[in-house]
Specification:
By secondary structure, the protein is mainly alpha-helical. The chain has helices spanning 5-39, 44-72, 74-93, 98-126, 129-160, 165-168, 170-184, 198-221, 226-248, 262-292, 297-303, 305-325, 327-345, 354-380, 388-420, 429-437, 439-449, 452-487. The longest helix is centred in the C-terminal third of the chain and has 36 residues, at 452-487. The radius of gyration is 22 Å and the shape is globular. 54% of the residues are buried.
């Protein structure tokens, strides 16, 4: 089917609406957790599973989602994903037990697992090489924009409505995307439809679940948690079995020959490194703003907007820089700017004003806008329309795992330095244990006891931990700079991007 010039941009806009809902759902839950704990009588473990159920199902279903879209029709599965995401949002909003909310969050993760890679897989089908970087930038911006909007929207809704409203907000985005995708997007599928790979589906899903669960649990329980290491080790073994099976079967779930392309391999890995660094920032900054800066959830979301502003500026500059210096140097410059922003951030302390924070997160956002879309486009550019679904799912699976690892490792780094930086002599064991849980708990205890010395030690310990974590993030970005310069090809053959095969 011929896709008119303006029509494909409308399709991208519709997909971006759906991605906004996914981004919102990643962070809007955070501001509702205290309310959920009270209304649903949820334990700390259940609160953790409200988030983990989403992340685990998302990680497990990404690869099968891309394959099913390629085989049976990308538009069909996009529409099913949007319907599932909307229905699960409704189920979350009206859940009356913790168990029901966990199940509905898992269903949300399944919808997102199809929505993210299949919306991404439309880019090689719809856009030629000269337009794909711009389209990828819009896609990535929509993917990121929902993250800081979550606390803003959630904070406002919780002030005026019941907690279920933080899930109902997904429905208008889903409705717009459903109507537009139905009316504007042509059906497309791979002309080559090999048999399904049930062993590949089972081993990839089980391996990613075990790995993601293990890494997430380490972030929550610490590096000495034995069950976490067992899950992590089992997940890695199953992933290894999956790779071996993919090499032996005649109809693999993923095409391992994709990794024969340096452009795909390093584009995907560099996008994962960017995710690693930026997820650490998004993990620590809200805690700093709320606990140290005494900002509410709505104010926290608003103060994260310079990150998105920088991303938009970086993306616009990226279009011109690629023409002038090429995608390789543009991506390397992006990682260097990310590193600069994060390293400036290491000087943040308890007395730093928001103006200073806004400067360095804006710089970081500019670097992200330069590096992330360029790295993703490098990998996407290798994909033909036939392989766009599975290839996009593979890129997103790597990014998802990179983000989970980032939060776990960087979260553990922050917690270790925070706990070992506290001076709690003279406090009862129960009170000291509460202070060690988190900076928010420590600040709350200090306020309740009206103890300025306790507040000082809590804040300074946290700021030290944050600085250490930002040094690690900055080091990852520096590594990304060198890897880009060494391994990302300057030029590579790109497959012709034919239009979608009509269904």
């Amino acid at each position: 089917m011929e896709i008119y010039e303006n029509r494909k941009w409308w399709v991208l806009g519709a997909l971006s609406f759906g991605l906004l809902a996914v981004g919102l759902d990643m962070t809007v839950l955070n501001v509702a957790l205290p309310t959920l704990a009270a209304d649903l009588h949820a334990s700390t473990g259940q609160l953790q599973w409200f988030a983990n159920a989403y992340n685990l199902v998302l990680a497990a279903a990404l690869l099968p989602a891309g394959m099913l879209g390629d085989r049976y029709g990308r538009k069909k599965f996009l529409l099913l994903a949007l319907v599932l995401f909307g229905a699960a949002s409704l189920g979350c909003a009206y859940a009356d037990t913790s168990e029901m909310l966990i199940v509905m969050r898992a269903a949300l993760g399944l919808g997102a697992a199809f929505l993210i890679p299949l919306s991404m897989s439309a880019l090689p089908v719809l856009f030629a090489e000269k337009e794909r970087t711009k389209a990828t930038t819009i896609w990535a911006s929509a993917n990121m924009l929902g993250i800081p909007l979550g606390p803003i929207v959630g904070g406002w809704l919780l002030k005026h409505y019941a907690w279920g409203s933080v899930f109902l907000i997904n429905l208008p985005f889903v409705a717009v995307a459903l109507i537009a995708v139905t009316a504007l997007m042509p059906e497309s599928r791979s002309a080559d439809r090999p048999p399904l790979d049930p062993i590949g589906i089972a081993t990839s899903s089980a391996g990613l679940v075990g790995f993601t669960y293990g890494v997430t649990r380490i972030g929550e329980q610490g590096w000495g948690d034995v069950p976490a290491w067992i899950a992590l080790g089992a997940g890695l073994l199953i992933v290894a079995a999956f790779v071996l099976w993919q090499q032996r079967t005649s109809h693999p779930l993923i095409d391992l020959s994709l990794f024969g392309s340096r452009r795909f391999t390093w584009g995907a890995l560099l996008a994962t490194l960017a995710n690693f660094a930026i997820f650490g920032l998004l993990f620590v900054l809200p805690q700093y703003l709320q606990a140290v800066g005494d900002v509410d959830t709505l104010g926290t979301g608003l103060r994260l907007l310079p990150l998105i502003g920088g991303l938009i500026v970086g993306a616009k500059v990226s279009d011109r820089l690629i023409s002038a210096i090429g995608s390789k140097l543009n991506a390397a410059a992006g990682f260097a700017v990310i590193a600069a922003g994060l390293l400036i951030g290491t000087a943040t302390d308890a007395s730093s004003g928001y103006g200073y924070v806004a400067v360095w997160i804006t710089v970081t956002g500019v670097g992200l806008g330069l590096a992330l879309p360029t790295a993703m486009d490098a990998a996407l550019g290798v994909l033909s329309a036939e392989r766009s679904g599975v290839g996009s799912a593979l890129i997103m699976a790597l990014r998802q795992v990179g983000g989970v690892i980032g939060v776990a490792i960087l979260g553990s780094t922050l917690n270790y330095n925070y706990r070992h930086g506290l001076h709690l002599d003279g406090l009862p064991d129960a009170v000291a244990g509460t202070v060690r849980q988190s900076v928010s708990a420590g600040v709350a205890v200090a306020s309740k006891l009206h103890s300025q010395p306790l507040w000082d030690t809590v804040v300074h310990a946290f700021v030290h931990g944050m600085a250490t974590m930002l040094w690690v993030c900055g080091g990852i970005a520096v590594l990304g700079t060198f890897l880009t310069l060494i391994f990302l090809p300057r030029h590579a053959h790109r497959p012709e991007t034919g239009h979608a095969k009509d269904a």
